[in-house]
Amino acid sequence: MLKICDDVGTCWNDLGIMLNLPAATVRNVDADFRLSREKASEILHIWKERKGDAATVGSLERALLALEKKAIAQSLIGT
Fold this sequence. Notes:
With 79 residues, this protein is mostly helical. The protein has helices at 5-8, 12-18, 23-32, 36-51, 57-66, 70-77. Helix 2 packs parallel to helix 4 (36-51).
């Protein structure tokens, strides 16, 4: 999943919300990290940590597709 951090870019914020992370968590990530890549990485880390086995590639793919990030979703699943 970390291979998509560069591609997520500035949509890391929307991705966090789409992955059902609390808005306060997303704001904290914004305050704690400077680069978009770092923010995307942290959002994915927090999501995986909180959701455990429910944090699947399929869930991430659906969130990216909902954000109209089809190319990133496809790179995630390798197609």
